[in-house]
Design a protein that fits this description.
Length: 56
């Protein structure tokens, strides 16, 4: 019951709008994979540039 009370707005939002955060989680997963592939890159601007080019 405590868990439901803590997450009630999010749970109810799903039933009202059928909205989830799946797209945000999928994007976070892609960024995590991208970060592992770009390990060792020291230039932050280049990292952001590549990230935007691939996923924007």
């Amino acid at each position: 019951i405590k868990t439901f009370k803590n997450h009630a707005p999010t749970i109810l939002n799903y039933f009202r709008r059928r909205a989830t955060n799946a797209s945000a989680e999928a994007f976070n997963s892609k960024v995590k994979i991208f970060r592992s592939q770009m390990r060792g890159v020291r230039d932050r601007d280049f990292f952001i540039f590549r990230l935007v080019k691939l996923y924007a």
